[in-house]
Amino acid sequence: MDSPHHFSVVKGAKVLMVGAGGIGCELLKTLALSGFQDIHIIDMDTIEVSNLNRQFLFRQSHVGLSKARVAREAVLKFRPQISITPYHANVKDSNFDLDFFKQFNVVLNGLDNLDARRHVNRLCLAAEVPLVESGTTGFLGQVTVHVKGKTECYECQPKPAPKTYPVCTITSTPSKFVHCIVWAKELLFMKLFGDKNQENDLNVRSGDAASSSNHVEDVFERRNDEDIDQYGKRIYDHVFGYNIEMALSNEETWKNRNRPKPVYIRDSLPDAPTQQNGNVEKNGTTNDPSLVSAMASLGMKNPQDIWSLKENSRIFLEALKLFFLKREKDIGNLTFDKDDQLAVEFVTAAANIRASSFGIPLHSLFEAKGIAGNIVHAVATTNAIIAGLIVIEAIKVLQNDTKRYRMTYCLEHPSRKMLLMPVEPFEPNKSCYVCSETPLLLEINMHRSKLIDIIEKIVKPKLGMTSPTIMHGSDILYETGDDLDEDLLASYAAKADTVLSELSCLMNGGSMLTITDLFQELRCDINIKHREAFDEEKEPDGMVLSGWNQAPSEENNGGDKSPDNNEKETVSSKKRKLSEDGLQSEETTRANKKLEVIDEDDDLVMLDDGDFGTFKKRQS
Ligand SMILES: Nc1ncnc2c1ncn2[C@@H]1O[C@H](COP(=O)(O)OP(=O)(O)OP(=O)(O)O)[C@@H](O)[C@H]1O
Ligand SMILES: [Zn+2]
Predict the structure, then answer these.
(1) Residue 113 annotated as binding?
(2) In this model, does residue 505 exceed pLDDT 80?
(3) Torsion of Cα atoms, 58 then 60 then 63 then 68, to 10°
(4) N- to C-terminal Cα separation, the chain
(5) Closest ligand 1 atom, CA of 378?
(6) How many Å lie between the centroid of ligand 1 and the Cα of residue 59?
(7) 23 with 136: CB under 8 angstroms?
(8) Is beta strand 164-166 parallel, antiparallel or unpaired with respect to 418-423?
(9) Which residue segments constitute the domains of the chain, with CATH numbers given?
(10) Which residue's CA is the closest to the ligand 1 atom numbered 19?
(11) Ligand closest in space to the Cα of 57
(12) What lines the ligand 1 site, CB under 6 Å?
């Protein structure tokens, strides 16, 4: 690729980079060193201290400044003659419109969320500008090429839902530490400190209550006559002792599994009353509830230590007590937050006590926090490798070297001796509603559902549109916008609140709606078909969208740090699943499948057996 043609396409190219974070810093440096001369960067963020370990264009003195602007200045120091145009802005802003995108020869994404990625994908398709997309998660990474009509677009394959666990694994038969973490943060923490009205799968019947058939007392409610120490110990004995005894009584469950051991406070903390006295004062001086810490109370400092069962039990009781003494206002409104120290301490201790009961190895607070918060620590080298691959693909795109486009996956462990796995790009998905014009089909009960239901359950969450206009033929049924007058907005609101069968244009049953989002330059048609009944368990939305391949649900895409995939776990009462973000790469699985058909003559990057320090290019 070091031909004069290569240099001229690089020199003449106008490139847009979106994101100046971990990948973006590496990318800007590599672009500049590769000879690119006209680079535009959009990033909406300012620099934070936590960025400095890997976003090497930034220094301590830059904290609080625009990433895009500082990245520009840093690179101009060693390449002063090139043009770098920074935008400290959200790529979704309306000034980055179709005309803005059309001026570029290629767009390079170094983003961290699905929403922005989908937006850029849509604008690139509309502007017919090739997109090189990327993502990293720890050691995993990927670079993909998206050229309209030639390769699949970023959205041709729906992104898989976060990994889920069956409720019974979490409530009764955990076999991994992550199951204990999900139990501690989704069930126990929520039961004690979250919204009391939410459905929860914890067993709330105590031994006493079970015997009285009429009235079931929720054991998690603090009794009037109970002090906080007594309450903590009662909860402890209930969840780690009594509930395990209950589970053990079902012999069938344990035929092929190790039986758990009930843990009672009298065994794990025989000296509990003296241990828990008066330590709370160590937190007494702080007025900031976010600094309250059970570890501080108990004089435990190192988050990397693996606590014994006894230490976990002390932390459990102390954290519960501190919530009631120092954070009472929050109780009833909390959800687990990885940046809430006391919550992390409580969840770590609870997960460890449960793990000990089930014979699962215990973990440190540091490790537990990583698992509970879905934190995968960024690896600077992965970002650097991915940035290099983005530039390689960008150059092929600029040379229009279609046959040599590759999607490349950076793996954590070598597979068939390869650490970098290049794969020929997939063809566009003919049923993709984003890059093809194939209409979607929506089955819906037209006598019960309203237009607003379609907007809230389908158009915004599933189609990812933020400012939709809904049309039937040339009639506008729904639209939003600051410039619309009040009467018009009121008439749209009234239509949105009408059941579909009463909208005059849809009265005759089957019909087609056209949905557009001007900000995304996206248009898609949806055929509406009446269906009387839906399965509450499997079709909780009361409507079903089809015509676009559905995603596999068991694995996530490791190279995508999008919040959409890192969303906090929720317990869906309808689906009866507890979810957790898996770390295995769905893309890797796709790559492995596709590997079967890779041409032997590909430029594979090999890792020598027994030599884990060097990459070797295969000799051809
Ligand atoms: N809609 C958007 N418009 C512009 N820039 C965006 C948008 N969404 C994300 N970004 C930028 O993409 C970059 C992604 O970089 P990276 O994944 O390293 O995240 P980070 O926020 O810098 O680090 P971390 O999340 O690991 O602390 C960030 O700098 C972020 O500001
Ligand atoms: Zn597509």
Answers:
(1) yes
(2) no
(3) -10
(4) 15
(5) 26
(6) 17
(7) yes
(8) unpaired
(9) 4-161+377-423 (3.40.50.720), 167-204+218-270+288-373 (1.10.10.520), 440-546 (3.10.290.20)
(10) 21
(11) 1
(12) 19-22, 24, 42-45, 50-51, 67, 90-92, 111-113, 116, 378, 561
φ and ψ at residue 209, rounded to 5 degrees: -65, -35
Catalytic residue among 25, 124, 168, 505: 168
Residue 163 tokens, joined: 């990994």
Contact in structure between 193 and 208 (CB atoms under 8 Å): no
Say whether 168 is catalytic: yes
Question: What ligand has the least distance to the C-alpha of 43?
Answer: 1
Helix (H), strand (E) at residue 84: strand 83-88
Q: What is the pLDDT of residues 249-259, one digit of tens each?
A: 988 889 888 99
Exposure b/e, 300-337, CB count within 10 A at least 16 = b? beebeebbebebbbbbbbbbbbbbbebbeeeeeebbbe
Average pLDDT over residues 153-162: 84
**For residue 585, what is the DSSP state?**
B
What is the phi-psi region of residue 118: left when phi exceeds 0, alpha when psi lies from -120 to 50, beta otherwise?
alpha
Per-residue pLDDT, 595: 41
Contact criterion met (CB below 8 Å) for 380 and 53: yes
Q: What is the mean pLDDT of residues 377-384?
A: 94
Q: What does pLDDT average to over the chain? A: 84
Rounded to a whole number of angstroms, the CA Rg of the chain reads 28
ipTM over 0.95: yes
Q: Is 417 left (phi over 0), alpha (psi -120 to 50) or beta?
A: left
Q: Which of 16, 112, 134, 381 to mutate to test the pocket of ligand 1 (most atoms within 8 A of CB)?
A: 112
Q: Which residues contact 191 (CB under 8 A, 6 or more apart)?
A: 200, 202, 204, 220
Helix boundaries (H) for 358-401 = 365-372, 380-398
Top-confidence residue, 513 or 213: 513
Quickly state the pLDDT bin for 273 (edges 50, 70, 90): low
pLDDT-derived band of residue 559, with 50, 70 and 90 as boundaries? Answer: very low
CA 592, CA 569: separation in Å to the nearest integer?
28
pLDDT of residue 585: 44
Q: Are 300 and 307 in contact (CB under 8 A)?
A: yes
For ligand 1, the distance from its centroid to the CA atom of residue 44, given in whole angstroms, is 8
| pTM score | 0.73
